[in-house]
Structure formats: C-alpha cells, structure tokens
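Please review the protein record below. Tell me whether the encoded fold seems credible here:
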Amino acid sequence: MHVVVLSGGMSAEREVSLATGAQVVMALREAGFRVTPLEVGADLGALVAALGALKPDVVFNALHGRFGEDGCMQGVLDWLGLPYTHSGLRASALAMDKQAAKAAFVAAGLPVATGQLVTPEALEAADPLPRPFVVKPVNEGSSVGVTILREGDNRRAEIARGWAFGPRIMVEAFIPGRELTVAIMGDRALEVTEIATGHVFYDYAAKYEDGGSLHTLPAPIHPMIRAQAMDVALRAHRALGCRGVSRADLRYDDTAGEPGQLYLLEVNTQPGMTRTSLVPEQAAHVGIRFPDLCAWMVREAACGA
C-alpha cells in the first residue's frame, strides 16, 4: 500500500506538523508501507498536481491547525477521491470551531465551562466575565493566542487591540485544578494522562518545548473520575462525528478535594503524532507500538473509503 504523508501547511503549527510528519514517515516505513512524504505550502494547485501524480492509496494527514485540520484539506481530499486518516470534513470543521463544538457538547450533555463570544471592541471596553477568565481564538489549535486574565492583570485592552485571530473572541470561566487528556482510538478510550507544567497553563511552549510539561500516565486521580474522563472523551468524539484517532482535553477541579468536577475543554481531531506525543504515549501504555498505531490509522482510513 502506498501512503503519502502530508505535513507542513500554513498555520502557526507548521513546525509541529513537520515533526509529526517526519516521525510518521519513519513509523509507516517500519510497518512495511511504501511511503512518500509531501510538504504542503500555500500553492494548492501544486499539491493537487503532486497527489494526482503520486496516486496514493491513502493519505496520512499530519497537518495541524488552520487549512489542515479544519475541514479545508479534508474537502480537497474528498474532491480528489483519496482516503485519508483522521476525521472527515464535517467533524474536522466542527471541532476546530470551538463555539460550534461547544454547542455540540452541550447538546450531548457533556460538562463544559461557561463562556461566550465577544468582539475585540467589547473586550477592550469591559470584562465580559468575572475574573479569572480565559481569552482564546475560536479557530486555532495548540493553545495559540490563549491568555488567562486574573485580578490585577491590566492587559485586557492591549490584547483586544492587538487581536489577530478573526472578528470573534471566545471567553470562558477559568477552571482551577488539573489538566487531563484522553486519547480515543476508534471506539476505545485508551487512558487518562495528567499534564503538569510550570507555566501558567498548558500553553504552546509547555506543549512543544523540551521539558515544558510532565506527563503522568495513568493520571493519579480518583477511579470514578478516571472512568468519567474516558466516558466524556468517547462521547465527545462521537458527538462531533470523529473517526480514527482524536484526543479530548479536560480540566479537573479538585480544589475542594476528590472526587472533583470535570470540564471538557475541546477535542483535537489531529493530535500530535511524534513518538513522545500524548496519543502515542497512551497507545504504548496499553501495548500498542507507535508503528502499529500509525498502521492502524492507515488501514482504518482505507477501510472507511
């Protein structure tokens, strides 16, 4: 089977995508596939021509962020009739739009933080929620553009005036406690990881810089919360219509003791796929090697074509 691995792209997560793509290429070759890496840039015509010439059996979509995991690339691949890994157009677009995804989560009865959409002008004028609250883009990944505004923080007007992520800003109540994540593989929740970091929150640097975060697997949490986190992640995957691999990020407020309260933050339909990324870590924990995980994703994409 011939697999083309797409990486790069035009989003703020380009370098992360390139790292994911390089490791996926090695893993798929180790698993016995014929693999062609293809770096994606701004020239869509060149990409379409390259895919037409290569004629892959499956495309492994290792792109992250806008134009890669928001439905755009999925639409191109659908148009070309090429099977691809991860979620389809609708689920990808829904997950990338945090407000639309949140509406789907609420409809499915999943626990989410209170919040609203505001304009930059409204944020500049006044606090939209009691502090502390979180300010984040509606359509970015990897915590790009996310800020927590606490009491005494005077950056609100500055953030609003410099906003570069579209006409809408998502604001949510800040949930104290711990950061948890759960990987989904098909119809199976793998495990719960706790992510600890010395940063203010699990931001871009904490995710991708060496030593930026500490992963504890399995998370040292109450058994009831572990079961609930895995259930919430699987239900969120299904609520968005995801397929293949996804990862749900949650906050666990245990500040009043355990068991505490879980809140679903978002679902990442194309999580990082280096050998040390969160999803491969959880897969290894349950006995699935990285090459086998990547091979499963390719075969699942081919079967779903």
User: Anything to note?
Assistant: The chain has three domains: 2-86, 95-112+176-269, 115-173. The chain is about 35% helix and 25% strand.
